Amino acid sequence: MMHNLKNSLIAAVMAGVIIAPVYGLQILRRGQETYLQPDWKMIIGGMLLVFLVQMLRPLIKRRKPGGKPLFTLPTFSDKARHKAIIVLVLFAVVWPFFTGRAQVDIATLVLIYVMLGLGLNIVVGFAGLLDLGFVGFYATGAYTYALLYHWAGWGFWEALPFAGMVSAMFGFILGFPVLRLRGDYLAIVTLGFGEIIRLMLINLYSFTGGPDGISGIPKPSFFGYQMVRRSMDGSPTFHELMGWSFNSQDVVTYLYLMALVLVLFTLYFTSRLIRMPIGRAWEALREDEIACRSLGLNPRNIKLSAFTMGAMFAGFGGAFFAARQGLVNPESFTFIESALILAIVVLGGMGSQLGVILAAVLLTVVPEIAREFAEYRMLIFGLVMVVMMVWRPQGLLPVKRPQVELES
Which of 90, 120, 145, 359 has its CA 20 to 30 A from that of 395? Predict the structure, then answer.
């Protein structure tokens, strides 16, 4: 008990040292004088929270006589996961017709992050390769559609496969420098790749628009019929075809349903991949690269395939993001986006597709609900990740892996 109390006090003091300069000091001006005023509520509140978490940590980890923890979340079998996914899909299809525009717009953003999380899950969750520059592939897909429209006049459906192909090519190119890297070294190289892409988009002003980006990107059409009030070329629009009066809610709902179709395609494709020999090879590489090589598998080809597949889905997500926003600029693809996508994979459970979906919903919807705490969003986000790593490091919905126990 005394040892736990001592560790809790030390952790609380260290938390105070970190919180004080970042969130606990306010810069105030009175006349020509500038001075710092400490926010003791924030500092003491953060220290108290860390102290309580450290004190409760032994209770969370305490085990029953049988060896099971006192507090656990249930793990689900493959059959239960499939049923849950079917229920979620049916709910997701009918939900936008019974809610408002703002809620549907937030849900569309959630689906984009689900798509990105499923793509990164191939690299990190299945193949075990830590990628901190995944946002670079996201940006590549977005700018591919934007540039094809700006310079060649291509529509969304024409540019979508090319966005996936270009991002996959960049993933393939990135795979070569990291073939012999693992762990922290791999993370540093991928982080540098993401920053290189962003800086290139800023510096190639005559081609990409530089910091201003590219605007006026059109929304996807419905089999050639534009989802707008009045088309620029005089062709009939979708609501004129249907005989409806134009409603902007229809456009938002259409974008949501299209994002849902892309997510379902990504989910089905990745589910099939993990059951194929390439998926088993990713798992073998994740568990032990040396053992993987001893089985006659080529780690080079396995890494390249993981980066290529993951980047392709990021490209699809980026193209849809550009179509939804109508504008792309380099500030939309910073390292924070990579960190958020990686947090979705880790929080949901590496290798767990249902966990990725749940984590994407939590990390996207909760900040929108608690807007009054927007100033402390990253602090709360960090605390949640710390608590998760202490309490449930395998994630919210960890994937159930086949195992065999031998009797001693």
Answer: 90
